[in-house]
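Standup, Tuesday
Yesterday: got the pipeline producing structure tokens again.
Today: sanity-check two examples.
Blockers: none.

Example 1:
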Amino acid sequence: MEPEATPQVPGTGELPEAARRGPISHAIFRVARLHRTLAGQLLREVGLHPAQELVMMQLWERGRMRQTDLARHVGADAATMTRTIQRLEKAGFVRRVRSTSDKRSVLVEPTAASQALRRQVEDLWARLEDYAAGDLTPAERGETLGALERLETNLAAHVGDAEPASRPGAPDA
């Protein structure tokens, strides 16, 4: 029987001992971190920060939306969405208006200035895709996307299920 190969972390050597029981999770973390770093570099070219482009994509696609719906579509909490919208508004890319039908609701809409940004975001998103997929064949790209969608489904099924881990030294309940 051959010994099991130790997973490697490109550029850093072996997978840390504590992460060996979760090599896929560790790989997801590394890839997500690199993807976000590269996305941030590309987005700076057009004056955006990571995740702001996701907000703009929703607004360009759907038009005026309630801020709470926008947060749900992007997967952000209310406080994060408020800060993001404030920054985008200050940059001139969105406008907030009170709903005429529900005074408690705030509607967010893309401005004319954001329309010039749209093509740039689409182009940099395509560059990011090319950087991420590299030399994968079309078939490998499809397989990768399918595997990522399955991972997302698996993880989504357990969001909220996890019991809080007991902390060392914490009293038992």
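Example 2:
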Amino acid sequence: MSALRTGATRVARRARPTALRTQRRTHASGHGHDEHHHAAGADEPLGAAFYVAVGAIPAAYLLYSISRPNHDGQNGFVGKLIQQYSNLSEEWETRNALRTAAFEQAAQDKHLLYNAPRNRHIDLKFPEGHFHQGGPFNVPAGHNINLDHVVEHYRNKHLDEEERKAKKAVALAA
């Protein structure tokens, strides 16, 4: 079967006409464009560049005339705009100065609050409850010890610690 198939394809290839293939052309002259080429139309527009160039002359003269001072010696339109924005910059200067003063005052207040002396009293509502297991209620008579000297000891210890911290902070600041 395969021998018949290959023979049939060879015959079909030979029977196909080879003259139907067209040649590829690389330039436009072979397509007949030369005969139909026309000149540019007579109503071609000038373009945007021409109008920009022509419009620049009166625009420059207008800008020059409004930038010059008046006959009275006062500023023209452009001078008034510049004066207006310079006044605006003075307002901004005063606003910025007020804001800077407010920020500096806030910084001073912050340092004042951070460096204020602390309350050295430690409020122990029930000192016995802190040193004993259990609360001060339902304690039989004679089982509760007077802990005032213990509270005073730890209060003094706390004051000494705070004094040591203050000395260390002063030494670091210096």
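Quick observation on example 2: Residues 77-114 form the longest helix (38 residues). Residues 134 and 140 are 13 Å apart (CA to CA).
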